[in-house]
Design brief:
Layout (H helix, E strand, L loop, with lengths): L2 E5 L3 H12 L3 E5 L13 E2 L1 H6 L5 H8 L1 E3 L1 E6 L2 E7 L12 E3 L2 H14 L4 E2 L4 E7 L2 E6 L4 E4 L1 E4 L6 H6 L5 E3 L4 E9 L6 E6 L5 E8 L2 E6 L4 H4 L5 E11 L2 E4 L4 E2 L2 E3 L5 E2 L7 H18 L5 H23 L4 H16 L1 H13 L1
Parallel strand pairs: 1-2, 1-12, 2-8, 5-15, 12-21
Antiparallel strand pairs: 3-7, 4-7, 5-6, 9-10, 10-11, 13-19, 14-17, 14-18, 15-16, 16-17, 19-22, 20-21
The chain binds flavin-adenine dinucleotide.
Flavin-adenine dinucleotide binds next to helix 1 and helix 7.
C-alpha cells in the first residue's frame, strides 16, 4: 500500500489526510504544535471547498455549525453604496453562498473526521530532515527518528520547513502596510449574516464578518481595525486583537521528486477575497485524487496555474478596494452604481465573490 507523510495539520494538511484516507492510501500526519490551533484566521468557506469536502462527510458538519452569508454590503465610509444578495443561478459546485466558520472550528471538524477514520494527528512532531532514496523518502523528525514513505506532502504553512529542505525558492514581495484584526463579541449588530466592507479615505478599507452568533471579525489595512469601522458596533468583549503583514508569493514548482507542496507552503496572498485556506483545501484534494489515480505528474503545473490565478484575482480586488487613485475610486463608485441598477453586473460581482 502507498504510504504518505503529511507535514502540517492546518486546513490543507488535514484535508489531504481526510482525502488520502478516504481513497485507501495509508497516511500519517504530523504537526510541530502541541495541539490544534485556536486561531480563527480564515472565515469564509467557498462553494468549491464545500463540494470537495462533501464525500468525506465534512461538509455536513461544517454546514451544521456555520453561518450562511447571503448578503454583502459595500459602504463608502458610513454611507451604503450597494446591497448585494449572494445568490447564483445555477449554483456552481452545488452551493450558492459563502459559509462562515472560524478556521479553528473548520480544522477541528476535519481532524475529528480523519481521527474517526483511524488516522491520529501526531502533535509535537516536527519535521527536520528529508532525504530522497531509491524508492521513497526518508523523513526525520525533531527527536531524530527517521521513517521511509513513498511520498511526502509539505502542508506546513508559509514558513514551510519542507519547502526550505527542498531548496525551492518562494519569490514575490511583502506589502509595506501592516493590517489589523479584531475578533469581538457585539450585540444587536444589524447584519448578523452579512459581509460588510467599508471604503475609507485615502485607500483605507475595513471589513466586518460574522463568526458566530453575536461574534464578529473586523479587519483593516490600517492600524486598530475596530477604531477604523465607521459603523456603530456595540462591542461587549474584545476576544483578540492583533496585526499582520502580507506577502504575495508563489513557488515556481510544487514538487521536487517525491516531495510535494500544498497550501500556504506553496502560495501566499492577501486575505482580500478570502481565498487562502480554500485554495489550500483544493491543492490537498487534487493531490489526493491524483495520487490515487496515478496522475501526480500533472499536479505541480495544474496547482501552479490555479494558485497564480487566485493570487492575480485577489491582488486585482485588493488594488481596487485599497486604491488611493481618485480615478480608480471614482470608477469603483460607478461600478457600484451600475451593479445597483444592472442585474448582469451584480451577477458578475457575486460570481467573483463565490467562485474567484
Ligand atoms: C488574519 C488572516 C485572515 C485570513 N482570512 C482568510 C479567509 O477569510 N479565507 C481564507 O481562505 N483564508 C484566509 N486566511 C489565510 C488562511 O488562514 C491560510 O491560507 C491557511 O491557514 C493555510 O492553511 P495551511 O494548512 O496551508 O497552513 P497553516 O494553517 O499555516 O498550517 C500549517 C501547519 O504546519 C505546521 N508546521 C509548520 N512547520 C512544521 C514542521 N516543520 N513540522 C511539522 N509541522 C509543521 C504548523 O504548526 C501548522 O499547524 C487568513 C489569514 C490570516 C492571517
Amino acid at each position: 500500500m502507498t504510504r504518505v507523510l503529511v507535514v502540517g495539520a492546518g486546513p490543507t494538511g488535514l484535508t489531504a489526510a481526510v482525502e488520502l484516507n478516504r481513497r485507501g492510501v495509508e497516511v500519517e500526519i504530523i504537526d510541530k504544535r502541541a495541539e490544534g490551533s485556536g486561531l480563527s484566521r480564515a472565515v469564509g468557506i467557498t462553494p468549491q471547498s464545500l463540494c470537495l469536502l462533501y464525500p468525506s462527510g465534512v461538509t455536513d458538519k461544517l454546514l451544521a455549525e456555520g453561518i450562511h452569508f447571503r448578503e454583502a454590503r459595500i459602504y463608502r465610509r458610513s454611507e451604503l453604496g450597494l446591497t448585494l444578495p449572494i445568490r447564483a443561478t445555477p449554483p456552481k459546485y452545488g452551493y450558492d453562498f459563502i459559509l462562515g466558520l472560524p478556521q479553528d472550528r473548520t480544522e477541528a471538524l476535519l481532524r475529528e473526521t480523519v481521527e474517526e477514520a483511524g488516522v491520529k494527528v501526531r502533535f509535537s512532531t516536527e519535521l527536520t530532515g528529508l532525504k530522497e532514496e531509491e524508492s521513497g523518502v526518508l523523513a526525520t523528525v525533531a527527536d531524530g527518528k527517521s521513517e521511509r514513505y513513498d511520498y511526502v506532502l509539505g502542508a506546513d504553512g508559509v514558513h514551510s520547513t519542507t519547502r526550505k529542505l527542498l531548496d525551492i525558492p518562494f519569490p514575490g514581495h511583502d506589502l509595506p502596510e501592516t493590517w489589523s484584526i479584531a475578533d469581538v463579541n457585539a450585540k444587536d449588530w444589524p447584519h448578523p449574516e452579512t459581509l460588510t466592507l467599508c471604503q475609507l479615505s485615502r485607500g483605507g478599507v475595513v471589513v466586518a464578518v460574522p463568526l458566530a452568533t453575536d461574534r464578529y471579525r473586523v479587519i483593516s489595512n490600517r492600524p486598530d481595525a475596530l477604531r477604523q469601522l465607521p459603523l456603530e458596533m456595540d462591542v461587549t468583549k474584545i476576544r483578540r486583537e492583533g496585526e499582520f503583514t502580507i506577502s504575495i508569493r508563489q513557488v515556481p514548482t510544487y514538487n521536487r521528486g517525491l516531495v510535494y507542496l500544498a497550501g500556504d507552503a506553496a502560495h501566499s496572498h492577501s486575505p482580500v477575497g478570502g481565498r487562502g485556506m480554500n485554495v489550500g483545501i483544493a491543492d490537498a484534494a487534487e493531490f489526493a485524487k491524483r495520487l490515487a489515480e496515478g496522475s501526480l505528474e500533472g499536479y505541480s503545473a495544474a496547482r501552479h496555474r490555479e494558485g497564480a490565478k487566485v493570487i492575480a484575482g485577489s491582488e486585482r480586488v485588493r488594488k481596487i478596494v485599497t486604491s488611493t487613485s481618485p480615478m480608480t475610486r471614482r470608477l469603483f463608485r460607478l461600478a457600484l452604481k451600475a451593479a445597483a441598477l444592472l442585474p448582469p453586473v451584480r451577477r458578475k460581482i457575486v460570481d467573483v465573490l463565490l467562485y474567484g
